[in-house]
Amino acid sequence: MGRLKDIRQFVREEDGMGTVEIILIIVVLVGLVLIFKEQITKIVNNIFSKITTQTNKV
User: Residues 3-55: pLDDT tens digits?
Assistant: First the structure.
């Protein structure tokens, strides 16, 4: 009877799910970065050029 209780408790535990979810989120983010790499690069370069021109005005 004690083993059945241990099995039920093991099934109810979700400690490992957090790790799996984090890994899946990281995989999705890396995939999005790879897909939109050119667009992200253009946006970042545009932001840095605006920062540079604004600091030159000060």
Answer: 777 777 776 766 666 788 889 999 999 999 999 999 999 999 999 999 999 88
Which of helix, strand or coil describes residue 58? coil
Look at the block and give the residue holding tokens 């979700």. 14
CB 33 within 8 A of CB 40: yes
Distance CA 46, CA 52 (A): 10
d(CA 37, CA 52): 22
Inter-CA distances, 27 with 21, 24, 31, 32, 54, Å: 10, 5, 6, 9, 36
Q: What distance in Å separates the CA atoms of residue 47 and residue 54, rounded to the nearest whole number?
A: 11
